[in-house]
Amino acid sequence: MLPVIALVGRPNVGKSTLFNRLTRTRDALVADFPGLTRDRKYGQANYDGYEFIVVDTGGIDGSEKGIEIEMADQSLLAIEEADIVLFLVDARVGMTVADQAIANHLRKQEKKSFVVANKTDGIDADSNCAEFYQLSLGEVHHIAAAHGRGITLLLEQTLQPVIAELSALNDDGTGDDEELVDLYAEDGEEIEQEAFADKPVKLAIIGRPNVGKSTLTNRILGEERVIVYDMPGTTRDSIYIPMTRNEKEYVLIDTAGVRKRKKVSDVVEKFSVIKTLQAIEDCNVVLLVVDARDGISDQDLSLLGFALNSGRSLVIAVNKWDGLDDYVKDRIKSELDRRLGFIDFARLHFISALHGTGVGHLFESIDEAYASATKRISTAMLRRIMDMAQADHQPPLVRGRRVKLKYAHAGGYNPPRIVIHGNQVHDLPDSYKRYLMNYYRKALKIMGTPIKIEFREGE
Ligand code: GDP
Ligand code: GDP
Question: What is the similarity comment for this entry (predicted)?
Fold first, then answer.
């Protein structure tokens, strides 16, 4: 599970600046869900090797309506969902009444909170920050977000211990696929997938509110061949439901909270971006549900972006396909083509969760995607395909010399990674990279998962 860090503090202390810096290395993907999450922004962060989810809570003013109301309105949820709260203060402005109010609130929470004094560039940080110790939240960390200073140290001190604690707590026993990488065949023919055969496929059903996730989950669980065991959720609010279908085992990660028994506490929204991000992170296959009647919204694209970033297998269900006339269906299909055309690996299904139409077929693509993602491919095979691709269509000349691909081997799977060594490979144009990717996809019959190709200079 990825740790979740929430940024809180008054407006103008530098939260957005820090947010942007943390998410920069991994194309900042910001999910903005108007009406649902107010001013919160979510991003997948990968900073100096630290991976986490970062939430920018928007400004807490703390003055006019009283801090508690503001907090409840804006940041309470973000704080509640977070593992770590970074409380930003402005080293140049010094301590304010609003800072004290926020600190009072944080001290009452059982959350790991850290005071972070920003804008320490060009000032005497030690003497300017001393007063923040009065906030009684422990050490005051100095950073200059705009210049990227102090951030790695901060993460090392705050994030590291929490990651260690979380991984001890969250070990759900289903195991990671990492240890299987060294089972990769160095040579010889394709190897059977027995290592994966007895592992349930973890399926995350995600989508924005009202697209039909709950209806679909109930439909899947309601089918008679499915045996359901309820299990308490292991992370925040998602519920993990083991189920069997056609004698195959799955674990359905229910982000819609269908099977949740406890009364949902008032502050917890039905839809949670964090829950969705964690489910994506923890699953093998993402089932993204979209609403045929609404078309593809920016929110759908945000969720899609998160799924793509994570490298998970993906199946897309276009739901509410019932009761539409052919003209409307055609129009929707061409819109999907236009907006989703860039994803060439995911199967698209037109379903009606309400009537059950097409739901069974989803599992064919889910199984296919999982098999593709975990498929073991030998070095010999990867090399042969590389040679064939090169023979069919030569790499281009760069500065008068031909780019030459020399050697290929597997770099891991889930998603499949292929490492190609050669001369001037860093100059390969994107068009040729895409050609290679498609060539591998066709030759290996890989569908439902992205393929990552890494290029390395030399042997
Ligand atoms: P937010 O309202 O808390 O999200 O604050 P912003 O990130 O929008 O930053 C407010 C202002 O502070 C902007 O003008 C930033 O350029 C500036 N700022 C942010 N970080 C730093 C820093 O490390 N040093 C200095 N000098 N200015 C900063
Ligand atoms: P969730 O918020 O994504 O879990 O969405 P729900 O499952 O609660 O569904 C939202 C609304 O869409 C409900 O009124 C459902 O009855 C309706 N709905 C769900 N699936 C379908 C479908 O396949 N066809 C139609 N016509 N309505 C559907």
Answer: Belongs to the TRAFAC class TrmE-Era-EngA-EngB-Septin-like GTPase superfamily. EngA (Der) GTPase family.
**Mean pLDDT value across residues 363-387:** 93
Per CATH, is 195-261+271-374 categorized as 3.40.50.300? yes
3-state class of 241 per DSSP? Answer: strand
- Is the confidence at residue 370, as pLDDT, over 60? yes
* Mutational pocket test of ligand 1: of 12, 147, 151, 154, the residue with most ligand atoms within 8 Å of the beta carbon: 12
**14 in contact with ligand 1, CB cutoff 6 A:** yes
- Taking the C-alpha atoms of residue 181 and residue 201, their distance in angstroms, rounded to an integer, is 18
Rounded to the nearest angstrom, the distance between the alpha carbon of 12 and the centre of ligand 1 is 6
Among 453, 253, 215, which residue's Cα sits nearest to residue 357? 215
Q: Is 16 annotated as a binding residue?
A: yes
Q: Which atom of ligand 2 is nearest to the CA of 353?
A: 23
Q: Which atom of ligand 1 is nearest to the CA of 18?
A: 7
Topology (CATH) of 379-457: GMP Synthetase; Chain A, domain 3 (3.30.300)
Is residue 376 over pLDDT 90?
no
Domain 4-170: CATH class, spelled out: alpha beta
- Domain layout of the chain by residue ranges: 4-170, 195-261+271-374, 379-457
User: pLDDT, tens digit, for every residue of 204-213?
Assistant: 999 988 899 9
Q: Computed from CA positions of residues 37, 38, 44, 47, in that sequence, does the dihedral angle turn out positive or negative? A: negative
Distance from Cα 9 to the centre of ligand 2, integer Å: 38
Flag whether pLDDT at 222 surpasses 70.
yes
> Are the C-beta atoms of residues 279 and 233 closer than 8 Å to each other?
no
